[in-house]
Amino acid sequence: MAGDRGIDWDGLGTFALTILAGTAAAGLPFLVAAAWVLRVGLSAGRSADGDLLVVFGKRLVDHHPDPDYQARLTSAARLAGGRPGHRILILGGRTAGARLTEAEAGECLLRALPGGASLSIDLEQASGDTLTNLRNLRELLAGDDPRPLTLITNRYHLARVSQMAHSLGLAHERCAAETVAAALRPAVLPRWPLEAFYVTWFTTGKLWASLTRNRRMLARVT
């Protein structure tokens, strides 16, 4: 439903419903979501208890990870370097026009870091948005249970990642890729309200699917 790249008919319908509900409630759902996105993002730590470090990919810029994606990757490398038992799983398929998948580009960056050659890295290269990232992650972990998973992404993205992981039944901990100061730099500020909208959209879509007993939609988010 609420993905980062592309939208189907279910998504269009729930998008419109989200706008209508938000307007009817004088924007209150968006304000609540924004407060939650900020609280989760700004309070997140940068350590990891789990053995599996899950790094979310991001659309490449000129075939390379952008600064936000680089922060996710270097955080994983820092954590893995401090604890040899850590494994890194990078999520992300090929974006339009890119020579590499997001996961491949991420691995290239990690391997080029000091000590990168010795890192234990696996790739998931079929997903194209956050929800599919997590659904494919769940499939990859079938029969394996390295819990809690450590989900590494930028602070503005953590609330949505956690929301979706919880809906899919994935036990996890949140790990912020960057410092609070870096997360609040002017270039990143527009991402916070956008993520609040995505969170509201996902909540609305899941609620609508439950109320209408739409098994197809429910199967995607649970």
Kindly list the characteristics that best describe this protein:
222 residues; Rossmann fold; five-stranded parallel beta sheet; 9 helices; 5 strands; 52% helix
Provide structural commentary.
The chain has 222 residues and is an alpha/beta fold. It has one domain (44-209): Rossmann fold (3-Layer(aba) Sandwich), CATH 3.40.50.620. It is 52% helix and 11% strand. It is built from 9 helices and 5 strands. It has a 5-stranded parallel beta sheet, with helices on both faces. Helix 6 (155-167) runs parallel beside helix 8 and helix 8 crosses helix 9. The radius of gyration is 17 Å and the shape is globular.
CATH architecture: 3-Layer(aba) Sandwich
Biggest β-sheet: strands ordered side by side in the sheet: 3-2-1-4-5
Tell me the number of structural domains: 1
Shape: globular
- Spans of at least 5 consecutive residues whose pLDDT stays below 50 are none
Total strand segments: 5
What is the percentage of strand-forming residues?
A: 5-15%
Cα-to-Cα separation, first versus last residue: 12 Å
CATH class, please? Alpha Beta
Task: Compute the average pLDDT.
Answer: 92
Proportion of residues in helical segments: 40-55%
What CATH calls the topology is Rossmann fold
CATH superfamily: HUPs
SSE layout and pairing:
Elements: H1 9-24, H2 28-43, E1 52-56, H3 67-82, E2 87-91, H4 102-112, E3 121-124, H5 130-140, E4 149-153, H6 155-167, E5 172-176, H7 180-183, H8 191-212, H9 215-221
Parallel strand pairs: 1-2, 1-4, 2-3, 4-5
